[in-house]
Amino acid sequence: RFQEVSLASDKFMVWSVSPILTGDVNLNQMMCKVFKVESPPPLPRVLEHLQGLQRVPVSLWPVEEELTEGFHKLLGYLGRSWKGMTEKQRKSLQTIELIPVGPTGDVKLVRASRLFFRLQGDYAPFMFEVPRSFGTHEHLLRSLGCKEEPSTDDLVNFLHEVSSESRRLPLNPNELAAVVKVIGAVADSGANFHGSLPVPDVHCVLRSSQDCFHCLDRELLLTIDRNVVQLVHPSLTAFCSVLGIRDLSKALSHQLLEEPSVMECPEAAALTARLSSREFATALLSMCHEDVGENEVQRKLASLQVCFTETLRYSLFLDGRQVSSRSSIETWFFLDHSRGRILLANHLPPHLSSYQVLASAVDQYIGSQLGRNLLLLSYLLTLEPADMLEAMEKMGMKGEGRDSLRTRGSPGSKLVPMDHELLVLEPCRRFRVGEIIAFEQDSNFHYGVIGENQPSTDEEEDMDCGIQRLPVRIGMNQTKWMLSSDLFSFKPTTQPQDSPPSLPSDHSAPAPQVPQVTREGGQGITSSEVVSAVESLLKKMEVPLSLDQKQLIQHSVELKKELHSVKRNFQSLQGTVEELVSRQDRLRELCSCPITQELMKEPVLASDGHVYERSAIERCMREGRPSPLTRQELEPFLAPSHAHKVLCRLLERDG
User: Fold this and answer.
1) Is the peptide bond before 510 cis (omega within 30 degrees of 0)?
2) Where is the segment annotated Disordered (predicted)?
3) 0.70 surpassed by pTM
4) What is the average per-residue pLDDT within 254-281?
5) What gap in Å lies between CA 144 and CA 147, rounded to an integer?
6) CB atoms < 10 A from the CB of 444, how many?
7) Share in percent of the chain as helix, strand, coil (round to 5)
8) Which 8-state DSSP code applies to residue 213?
9) Domain 410-497+516-525's class?
């Protein structure tokens, strides 16, 4: 029915929900009124179109006009319709991903509430500055939820929105980096923060800060079940105290699995006496930090008792729930705080004395002030390498190794297992400066970061984004130029999962285009490099590329380069022709009589300073009429204009 049809000029606003008249069918205003075709389309139809727009990638939109021009038209329409909208329609628009952001070739839609006119820092792919081209729609953008700059409350609300959108799925490296920046801004704001805040755990899943713990003790992390305890991501360690995230080492309780059988022996009594002596306290204080209180240390040691037992096995508990990775943990000493005693295992390995074990126990008892890694280094040197890790675990030593998650996203580091499932190959899209990507090297995937010296020329703006040569940071102070066909992107966690709406039957999705060739500075990517890139892509899919196919692709690339060059020359010549036509029209206007509006055959100059056709101006003078241009009285004097006469003859000859 004609009532459901929209004009081609309104296609951008309704193409997913309304049939579009082809461009060669033109309906004037009267015909539109007769057939009840509305232009611009009705608001409910536009809102229905916008509701499903986010499900279709921008690159698949069947529209011919530029995105910026189309969105200017759309936002202008919404701005004019805003006053007539119901409150329900306005709230619906505020939740729609409506505003395009990002470079050409990698455009995505975001809600207006994720846009700000001033934004300190790069929070992509979640928060963006308002594109300059849409500054004219400031009133509408503010009505949709755009603000001048984000406040602390805005950042907190944003984290809750991302947590809801991610649906407990791991964030990809770029999303994680943006979330960490936002959390850092919240922590640095100095505002009194109360309540729960979504924070990423070690699996990069957003969880409540009240349910998470932080832990710097690597050995302790090896003894707990990480599926039971939610640990905050290591990149947030500096903000844990501000955000109220609890320290796991202080929240855990060590409990013996069975009552130890204490052995009576003279050595235990002698060690107890030494610990409670003033001399030992003085020596101990000399090795501690200056902020350790003397009275506090003496008070702890005075009532401390040393006991020996056959075996020591304990488990870790958190809020009354066992969280150990093993059912029991064997140890060589145990701090029994409730009874004020140190329990030592009677049977120790060779070359390890009870004095060394007790020294480590005392150090832990007073708060790890002695640097026991150095104290026991001499013992570790007596062991075979295979026995060192077990000894460090049983002695409770804190190693200094880095958690692999700390290096997630660092240039040159290997991909963590969770990111392998997020890899996607998109060689023909635009890559953002600072974006984390992955590349393959020596049969392993490594992280890389897109550098800042990307090619940016006017020529590229007229071409589709294709295979590119990009600077990639692959390590500390190491940058390598790589083809985009060798780079892997990460799938977004918050991407809508709904299936895209069906397109009108008269509009099929555009066929994928052959990648264009972009340039780095003045150096173009050669056709052989394109062939190599295509061959690399086919190898990833285990599809061989024959010699004839290689030559065909190379020839196709060369033809496309020639076609692009011809297109530029044609556009340049077209501009020259249009300028010449404009000049000719101006010249014809100068040689046309202001009275008859025809080319003059006998031009004469009248007393008002203008040139007329002799017969036309003489008729005015005989009838006593004033000048048709200046309304002055005409003098009875006409002078031939030879210059105009020559120009008129030339124009008449050339048609």
Assistant:
1) no
2) 489-524
3) no
4) 85
5) 9
6) 9
7) 45, 15, 40
8) E
9) mainly beta
Six-digit token pair at 94?
Answer: 């505020």
Q: Are 423 and 486 in contact (CB under 8 A)?
A: no
Q: Which two tokens stand for residue 78?
A: 């919404």
Answer with the residue of higher pLDDT: 629 or 77: 77
Q: pLDDT by residue (tens digit) across 410-421? A: 888 888 888 888
- What's phi and psi for 204, nearest 5 deg? 65, 30
User: Which token pair is 56?
Assistant: 């279709």
Burial class (CB in 10 A: 0-12, 13-18, 19+), 256: middle
Domain map of the chain by residue range?
A: 1-137, 151-250, 252-394, 410-497+516-525, 591-654
Which overall architecture, per CATH, does domain 591-654 show? 2-Layer Sandwich (3.30)
The answer to whether 478 and 412 have CB atoms below 8 angstroms apart is yes
Residues 170-198, mean pLDDT to the nearest whole number = 85
Question: Is 591-654 in the same CATH topology as 410-497+516-525?
Answer: no
Ramachandran angles phi, psi of 470, nearest 5°? -125, 145
Residue 518 contacts residue 466 (beta carbons within 8 Å)? yes
Q: Which pairing describes strands 128-129 and 115-116: parallel, antiparallel, or unpaired?
A: parallel
Per-residue confidence band for 368, with pLDDT thresholds at 50, 70 and 90: low
Q: Are 449 and 435 in contact (CB under 8 A)?
A: yes
Closest Cα partner for 472 from 454, 493, 490? 454
